[in-house]
Amino acid sequence: MLILAGCQSADADRDLLRVGLAQMPITIDPRFATDAASVRVQDFLHRGLLKLDASFNVEGDLAESWEHPRPLLWRFRLRQGVTFSDGSQVTAGDVAATLRAVINPALVSPLKAGFAAIDHIDVDDDYSLSIHLSRADASLLSRLNLGILPASIAGAPHNAHQTNGCGAYKLALWNENGITLERREEAESVARIRFSSVKDPVTRVLKLTRGELDFVQNDLPPHLLPYIRDQKQLTVQTRPSTTFAYIGLNLQDKMLDDVRVRRALALALDREKLKSALFSDLPVLAETVLTTSHWASSQLPAVAFNLNEAERLLDAAGFPRGENGIRFTLNYRTSTDPTRLRLATAIAGMWEMAGIKVSIESLEWGGFYARIKRGDFQVFSLSWVGIADPDIYRWILHTEMWPPKGANRGRYSNPEVDGWLEAAAAGESQSERKALYARVQQQMLKDMVYIPLWYDPVIAVSGARIQGFEPMPDGNLRGLMNISFATEED
Q1: Which residue segments constitute the domains of the chain, with CATH numbers given?
Q2: pTM for the whole thing?
């Protein structure tokens, strides 16, 4: 009987793809997703009006066509026959209800600021709607990949663990063992996907090696790569990514409100040594959020390691070394992820060479991210994941984007930059917008709003069963929907 039960269990898991995550999603509600894990999982559950292709160009998803007859008007025509996981049809009313909910102040969606240009939405018929703007917004289309919910729940309060989406998969189970999704239509291979939290990267790799997991991506310390590559049953794929790693600073803090201190912190970091020692030299050094291949990116001078200049700036800012050699102490918040802790420890060591004592505070992901989102920190390190829209600069720099409205968590404020961002968001000409974003990026670096680190690599590791996965620059996992499982003969 035990043997029979084991065989039945193996058969049941044959079409189950087991994915290991460093941390679980915070929510599967598309109106509230801002963390990377939530966005990754929601790709399987939800669809938006539009989506971005591999080159970050807009293409249709729920919308089969759209037009822009006037600067403040967009019209969309929906595909017919698309359904939610409960079987109900996706209509223009559902799209309108979802967008209205996000811009409704009562819901307090963290995505509200991204849709602030919407004045009102008209449902023209069951499959047509018009979006009327109060001001021009050149980036609106790239944000219309927001997952659409049925009108019946679109205005309801946040429900992190339940949803009704129109994506390829539906939620089957969310419990202490992870999140299980089921394919809504018959699939040749990946009928079910289970996302499990395995915080420790060594444990994650061991589970891959033993066949308890089929796939992991990122959140792997590169020092494990030689071991992984030695495992013949595992396949490692790496490529440059669009994920921008940075150090966040509280510009309202009495220690950090002087740009000379912020610049000194940047100059005291030997980024080449950090990426070589901690990340097998895989990252590409960055000076701004967007990669150099993006049309809105600007060529900026590198922030080169210069400890002597860092010390001079700290002296000039009024922070001389004390008798014990310490100038002042900073609190550095990070998550409990081992890679993040190693990075924080290495950065702290470099800053201490400049006379800055660093107190590292590591928190579980949920508590850490909640504090960062509300601006409760002196210093932290994080990454902006898969950024494609240059309007990210407005989201993280504009004075109106201080928490909880947006992600200007360091509370930077520069009226001139605000004006450039507003003009860029409203511009119809790409060349005009590029020139404005160049000014923004130059001023951002001059004011050292964030300390740039690098663009993280995409590191995907597949078990023996997986065939056909290709990692994407923005780190999305949508390619897992189309992989195939190897047979025993393979």
Answers
A1: 47-154 (3.90.76.10), 242-456 (3.10.105.10)
A2: 0.73
